[in-house]
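Input/output pair, single chain:
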Amino acid sequence: MKIYHNPNCSKSNCALDLIKQQGFETEIINYVNNPPSKAELTHILKLLNKSPKEIIRQNEVLFKQNFENKDFNDEEWIDILVKNPILIERPIVLHHGKAVIARPAEKIMELIK
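Output:
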């Protein structure tokens, strides 16, 4: 199991706790300090079956000040997210070729059914 995690986020910490409670070995990626590459993010989006805009934290100040009401194509949004990983919704959990945004943390259970 792999979690794109922000240790400063209570929702992300809840998801990580749930994963640990389930006993899974987990690769923890602090994606704010170690953002996914463009290829990784594209792969994650495919697994999530979401567009880049659907995983943006639209309440972040950075988004509101710089990107709100702007019209970018998917590739441009991916570039923006790679350069500004704080805008990526969290946590994202991957397991056996599937992915979820674990909000709430119980969504992780969808991956282990």
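The chain has a mean pLDDT of 96. The chain has four helices and four strands.
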